Amino acid sequence: MTAYRRTARALTLGAGGSAAAGLYAATASPWLALPGLYAAAFLAWCAARYSAAHHRQVAEADWEQRHVLGEAPAPLNPCCMLARHSDGAAHDRRKCTDEFHRITADLATEPRSST
Ligand SMILES: [Zn+2]
After folding, report:
1. How far is the first Cα of the chain from the last one, in angstroms, to the nearest whole number?
2. pTM listed for this prediction
C-alpha cells in the first residue's frame, strides 16, 4: 500500500463523514447541508486524485521492474509526469518510461545534487 492510497482512503472516509454531517444538518435547514456537501465533494475529488497517483506509482514500479529484468515494456501514457505537465516538451531522464526520451532528455531537466 502506497502513501497515496492511504491518503485516498482517509479522504474518502472524510468525504463520507462530511456528507453525513451535511445531510444531518439538512434536517434543521436545507441551506445548512451546503457546507457539508461542498466539503464532501471536495474531499471526494481529492481522493480521486490521490487514487490516480497511487495507480500511476504502481504502474511505474511495475514498468521499472520489467525494464530492469530485461523486458521491453511499452511506455506508459503519459510517459512521465514531467512530460504531462510540460505538454511533452520535457521528459524526466530518470523516470521517463519511454527509452528514447530517457536518452534524448535535456540535461537541464536533471535534478541538481546538493553536494
Ligand atoms: Zn517522458
Report:
1. 32
2. 0.80
